[in-house]
């Protein structure tokens, strides 16, 4: 399970931190309150602030870091059952984790849907408009095309419910870079069997780790997520492999960007 904290080392700020880039850039749109940017009713009224944020977060501006590549390595070794992420930055896919191994619980910019006729689009089709700061419109019905990001007031994607079959068969749960404050995602931490270890890699204690509801086999590695992941990779003897994988994939991505 992962959240915004795994992407801060890639340079993506927390939305709410005072002085952080994202919300500061949104001031000009006079949002009634910060969360309005992710409220579906507000989006229908004024989609521009959301598209300003989309421009910033659209895949391509940021690179995955060691935490993302660690999960990719888990997959390459046949050890990943699934990655449940709250992030919408697409860095998991960029690190090469196959989409079928991901549950992007709060959606993705990889696909989009017309808010009027429900026609489906590939996220890349919206890129030129989003980069120009134009609200993308459906050529068929002229409705606004919305990236498939889950807004407040919208249901989570159906594949979120995969947790019902995934969590009971997991034999380790790693929780990284999340405050475990957003429901229903946060409650997944309680969905593994009681005999299963839960490893928290985070700056601070969160969720059941903070409320005194820890299980005897829970472990918390507090501090920076990249340092925590490095420690785990070291203990597994995977550090060299992890660094090689990261260098290889980053190299390939840079070459692709240059083409
Ligand atoms: P959050 O509530 O902002 O919590 C982040 C957690 O990560 C906190 O406990 C921090 O202490 C911790 N943290 C931050 N940086 C580090 C670091 N370098 N090392 C270790 N720990 C760190 O974020 P959540 O994901 O829990 O909140 C849910 C929201 C925020 C979701 O709906 C996300 O979509 C949304 N969000 C996403 C992104 C993104 O896609 N990158 C960015 C900002 C917010």
What does this molecule look like?
The chain is α/β, with parallel strands linked by helices and 259 residues long. It has a domain at 59-106 and 155-247: Rossmann fold (3-Layer(aba) Sandwich), CATH 3.40.50.1220. The chain has helices spanning 21-26, 40-45, 48-57, 66-76, 91-94, 123-132, 163-166, 225-236, 239-258, and strands at 83-85, 102-104, 107-114, 120-122, 145-149, 172-176, 197-202, 219-222. Strands 4-3-5 form a three-stranded antiparallel β-sheet. Strands 6-7-8 form a three-stranded parallel β-sheet, with helices on one face. Helix 4 packs across helix 9 (239-258). Bound molecules: carba-nicotinamide-adenine-dinucleotide. The site of carba-nicotinamide-adenine-dinucleotide has 25 residues, from loops.
What is this structure, in a nutshell?
The protein is an alpha/beta fold and 259 residues long. It has helices spanning 21-26, 40-45, 48-57, 66-76, 91-94, 123-132, 163-166, 225-236, 239-258; strands at 83-85, 102-104, 107-114, 120-122, 145-149, 172-176, 197-202, 219-222.
Outline the secondary-structure elements:
Blueprint: H1 21-26, H2 40-45, H3 48-57, H4 66-76, E1 83-85, H5 91-94, E2 102-104, E3 107-114, E4 120-122, H6 123-132, E5 145-149, H7 163-166, E6 172-176, E7 197-202, E8 219-222, H8 225-236, H9 239-258
Parallel strand pairs: 1-2, 6-7, 7-8
Antiparallel strand pairs: 3-4, 3-5
Helix pairs in contact: 4-9
Residues 3-5, 7-9, 12, 14-15, 86-89, 106, 177-179, 181-182, 202-204, 206, 224-225 line the site of carba-nicotinamide-adenine-dinucleotide.
